[in-house]
Amino acid sequence: MHYINHIIEILLLPMKHKRNFLIFTAITFLAACTSSPFTELNSRDNFQLEEETSFKVQLNKDLLPVEMDPILIENLGDAVKEYLEGVGHRFSQDAAITIDVSVTTKEKIKYNDFRFYGYPMYRSYLYEPDRINTVPEFFLRISVRDEQSDKTLWTGLTKWRKGSSYAPTDMPSAEMLVENLLVNL
User: Fold this and answer.
1) Closest C-alpha among 95, 162, 114 to residue 134
2) Helix (H, G, I), strand (E, B) or coil at 113
3) b/e for 154-172, b at 16 or more Cβ within 10 A?
């Protein structure tokens, strides 16, 4: 009789591992599908950039916040130029289409209410840490503007926080962030 139990255990053990593997795979797939950077897009009359369009890139270096690295915005501008040239467009300094790349920052206020994390008796409120904390968020806006009509035809916005996996700290991550926006153009 114990041989039958041993055979059943041997047969059920791989099924248990298969079930755990399928659960792990499903959770990983769902996490991968939902983990994409924030993007907000808008266009005038469903604008699409035509093939072989000449463009120039304009950066907001003069209005760059102090927290931002000037090399970062240059990398983002180079990534925009490389991406659009890679999809078949031409870079020209006297083009009628301008790609505006602007980066800015905004402080997000986080409030921590510590009253519910501990028993309120014997608590020293004189030495309580600050409950309000600010976290800087960085925004990248890429806009396609027509110089002749002086109108914005397409715009895309994304944001990240310092230390985020989407932060453009080097050229490959800047290319990934720009591609995430411009793939919708």
Assistant:
1) 162
2) coil
3) bbbbbbbeeeeebbbeeee
Q: What are phi and psi of 30, to 5 degrees?
A: -65, -40
Cα dihedral angle (113, 118, 120, 123), rounded to 10 degrees?
Answer: -90
- Is the Cβ–Cβ distance between 163 and 180 less than 8 Å? no
Taking the complete model, does pTM exceed 0.85, yes or no? no
Whose structure tokens read 């840490």? Answer: 129
55 φ, ψ (degrees, to nearest 5): -145, 160
> What are the pLDDT tens digits along the chain (185 aa)?
566 676 666 655 565 666 676 777 777 777 766 667 788 999 998 888 888 899 999 998 888 878 788 888 899 999 999 999 999 999 999 999 999 999 998 888 877 655 555 555 555 555 555 667 788 889 999 999 999 999 999 999 999 888 888 888 888 888 999 998 998 88
Say how far apart CA 45 and CA 73 lie, in whole Å: 29
Largest CA distance in the chain: 89
